[in-house]
Known about the structure:
Chain A is of the alpha/beta class and 122 residues long. Chain A contains 5 helices and 5 strands; from the N terminus they run βαβαβαβαβα. In chain A, β3, α3 (59-68) and β4 form a beta-alpha-beta unit. The mean pLDDT of chain A is 90. Chain B folds into 2 domains: 3-80; 89-237, Histidine kinase-like ATPase, C-terminal domain (Heat Shock Protein 90). Chain B has 7 helices and 7 strands; from the N terminus they run αααβαββαββααββ. Chain B has helices at residues 3-38, 42-45, 50-80, 93-109, 129-146, 189-193, 205-215; strands at 89-92, 113-117, 124-127, 152-161, 164-171, 220-225, 229-237.
Amino acid sequence: MNILAIDDNEDILSLLETVLTSKGHDFTQALNGKDGVKLIEEQNFDAILLDLAMPEFSGIDVIESLEKNDRIKNQKIILFTASSATDKEINSLLKHDGIKLCIRKPVDIDFLINKVEEVVKS
Amino acid sequence: MSNTDTSISSEKLKEEFLDLITHEFQTPLVPIIGFSQALQNPEIFGNLTEKQLDAVKRIFRNSNHLQNMITNVLDVMKLGTDKMMFYNKEFNINDLVTEVLDECNYKTNEEQIQVTKKIDEDLIINSDRFRIKQVLTNLIDNAISFVPKDNGKIEIGFSEREEHILFYVKDNGQGIKKNEWSDLFKMFKQVLQGKKRKHGGLGLGLAICRMIVENLGGDIWIESELGKGSTFYCTVSKGNGK
């Protein structure tokens, strides 16, 4: 499986890389939303872990950008967020095409791996 | 700017500050909890020495404890700003309970604590999935703190009661005296007890559970016998909540 993670925190990306590659998955990372969109336009990913609260170009901007160029429908996006006040926001985001589920940070890593693998197989 | 405008703006500021600190407090815990969990897995980092493994487990346990406290404190702050919101949707309770148990597996695996689910029956209700999950997680965390570490037994179940769903979490801990039952669900009881307090932590978990289930049209209570253990019960409305 080829997984893309978009997150502005390098330590979180390093954790995701460590656990996902240990399960034999390919891992690609982007440290900001703009680079993430560029990667999605250039390559195909089996699943995308997307942080919401990123400076300058947020996870919401990534979703809007993918909707504009019609790339969102074919994606399997998992929101991965530490934001608290977005219960309502998250419920409405989950109605978008391509957005499969939301996992709140911090998370049990075995649970995270299972969910990513489930989404890819779905 | 009128007085009213100032007050709206101050509420908005509070809201945004709360969002910001939630994000800023939770984010560093992701790699701390995640790496300390990954380090315990020989498939990822190889075998650690006994001393290293013991140290990593202590980091993991304490960072999880810190994360629970942060979540509870932030929820209390949300209460103050009226920001704790509820969103109902249809979901299967059986799946939710399984998910709660899956997520707390890592807390019980290293101790000799057995958690069992007493029912396996699909049941769809229309309520706030996220908040009910928070209640059940708090009740299980609470039970984990009080059961014997070498022979802990926790049981979780649910059933239909007319317009409500009844959940229970039963433990074989030390039990609680009847005259202490009503105080268990009060906010800030740990602070009020001052230096006489019997347990660690902030004592917010059960108070938050009470507040959530009351908002979901239900109630929470305990039955307990000293030396035998406690059972926490809570109900939520099956329909549209409050």
